[in-house]
Input
Amino acid sequence: MPTPEQYDVVVLGSGEAGKYIAWTQAKKGKRAIVIERRYIGGSCPNIACLPSKNIIHSAKVASYFARSEEFGITKDNWQIHMTGVRDSKRKMVDGLVDMHLANFKSSGAELLLGSGRFIAPKTIEVSLPDDGSRFLHGENIIISTGSRATIEPIPGLREAGPLTHIEALELDHLPEHLLIIGGGYIGLEFAQAMRRFGSKVTIIERNSRLAHREDEDVTAMLSDIFRDECIEILTNATVTGVEGKSGDRVKLHAQRNGGKTALEGTHILVATGRTPNTQNIGLELAGVQTTERGHVKVNERLQTTAPGVWAVGDCAGSPHFTHIAFDDHRVVTDNLAGGHRVTTGRQVPFCMFTDPELARIGLSETEAKQRGIAYRLTKIPMIAVLRTRTLSETRGFLKALIDTDSDRILGFTALGVEGGEIIATVQVAMLAGMPYTALRDTIFTHPTMLEGLIPLFAAVPSKK
Ligand SMILES: Cc1cc2nc3c(=O)[nH]c(=O)nc-3n(C[C@H](O)[C@H](O)[C@H](O)COP(=O)(O)OP(=O)(O)OC[C@H]3O[C@@H](n4cnc5c(N)ncnc54)[C@H](O)[C@@H]3O)c2cc1C
Output
């Protein structure tokens, strides 16, 4: 091995946490380099959050066209061209990649395109696209390799060439009948978007409910909304075998409620979870251990089992959200500066970008019950929020859990239009330790969605 080039920080993978760590260190005058094999800036801007939301927005526009007469507008013979949908997404992604390149340039962090793997402690070999190699040694190394769609070992599934989110975001044609394996947030977001473009869509979910970790009233309403859009939902169904080729004709065999069932369609989309990208990167040569589920083993400061090696984002088992990966950057950045910042106890808000959105911060009722935490419940239908009537988007509800002894907010769920925006206000109130009464008594602008927090918190049952 030639003498490795010396860096202060070497980042493996240019995802959310890794790139921000590199940019921040480089701006402080450190020598920082990021190794990226394919997606400049990681999954979020290229193949995950942002392109999926772009496509979901196109699907929302399609749904407005479908409902146009409701708004007094007619447009005859409107059509959906998936190439146009894809091109709009590609244009956005190109802009995001340019933005990332500019950030690398202005920060002074180096971007090296190639595939990296450890060959010794704190030493990485990078295989370059032209078949050459570079050897890098870092005072600190950050593992930021992310995760990929899990393809379960179901007979015939891999051979069928199913779509993952990556190919689904690149479709130039409309699947006639899309079979989606998995009713979690990725599957549900795609299901609704593809249905709105005109595909027949069937969701196959092994649990008894869609988004099964959410409260029953949440998933019941989501299912109603999906059924209203003619999305077929099969719960308690475990796929046992696949025949045919996705993109042509496919047949799924499944066990359901003790019996067997078969489903035919034209395309399969797998959305059954994520596998961390921790194999074949030489972790064992660097003293970096993994957990049973394959994530890099980290402590609450995001240090791995090897000194000077850190892991962040999906590959470290952090909750799989870009905003959490961003916070991992803050944790490592502070710790590199000698601080003691930890991941324990941090808020994990989330939003599923179905229409309407499902957003939650803090405890759900299910979690509160499981943990034996007593709460007071308040819940109002979205139609009680007047803004939803002006938008003709009245489906859903808001609900909050309030402590029984104090007026502390324990959790908040918004299943409704702009749910992802609404939770932010409640989240900040929770961070600040404000009582629910402060939100109840705030003067919110009329008519906005946040105004709905007033009737919601006005309906909190009094303490016993
Ligand atoms: C369809 C979809 C929609 C999503 N929507 C949302 C959303 O709306 N909001 C949200 O918060 N989260 C969303 N997520 C989750 C979010 O995308 C991830 O949690 C986040 O991108 C994880 O960032 P990361 O830095 O850990 O990994 P990544 O962004 O995946 O970055 C890892 C990078 O490392 C590179 N890499 C891996 N191995 C090597 C190697 N050996 N050498 C060189 N490079 C390597 C990869 O190419 C990749 O670019 C979504 C995910 C999916 C799949």
The mean pLDDT is 97. Residues 12-18, 35-39, 42-44, 48-49, 52, 115-117, 144-146, 165, 186, 277, 281, 313-315, 320-323, 325, 353 surround flavin-adenine dinucleotide (CB under 6 Å).
